[in-house]
Write a structure and sequence with these properties.
single chain, mainly beta, two-stranded antiparallel sheet, 19 strands
């Protein structure tokens, strides 16, 4: 709709984040014109929402990781579909250790929720790296994996072990 030389478009949309977009304008009898460049921002990074916690080698993680998709402004992005992949960060944990379970999960409402990850191998200071195409990756804090369960182990705030219940 145009009024007094000003046109307003209410049904335009750009579906892909990119820098430097320009719109080509053409309305005879006026000369064609280009808009100034503008940027469309979208999902840009993965953010650790829930850190993994492991107690026993080969058993599902006691706390499964949850990864959020965020934009450049730190807001969670609910739209879009990404596959987030988990891997043991090279040089952490134990040589020969591996992840078991579904190490690649799709996002839904801006979250990738892992449900059955486990670490096969015993060691300390494991770090998981979470990645997805076109997004900055994120890492878990270090955690340990034991060969046998500790009696009365508890999970405290932040997912850390806090000793024995008595």
């Amino acid at each position: 709709m145009c009024c007094a030389g000003v046109c307003v478009f209410t049904d335009l949309r750009v579906d892909r984040a990119q820098r430097g977009y320009r719109l080509a304008l053409h309305a005879p009898p006026f000369a064609p014109a280009l808009t100034e460049p503008f940027d469309v921002r979208g999902p840009s990074a993965l953010v650790l929402s829930t850190a993994p916690v492991a107690f026993l080698a080969g058993a599902p993680l006691a706390v499964q990781p949850v990864i959020a998709v965020h934009d450049d402004f730190g807001r969670r992005v609910e739209r879009g579909s990404f596959t987030v992949t988990a891997a043991i960060k090279p040089g952490t944990g134990a040589v020969g250790a591996r992840l078991a379970g579904a190490a690649a999960v799709p996002t839904g409402m801006g979250f990738a929720r892992f449900t059955d990850l486990s670490v096969v191998g015993v060691g300390s200071s494991f770090v998981l790296v979470f990645s997805a195409a076109f997004l900055y990756p994120t890492e878990s804090p270090p955690f340990d994996v034991d060969a046998r369960a500790r009696p009365n182990a508890q999970v405290c705030a932040g997912g850390q072990r806090c000793g024995s219940a008595r």
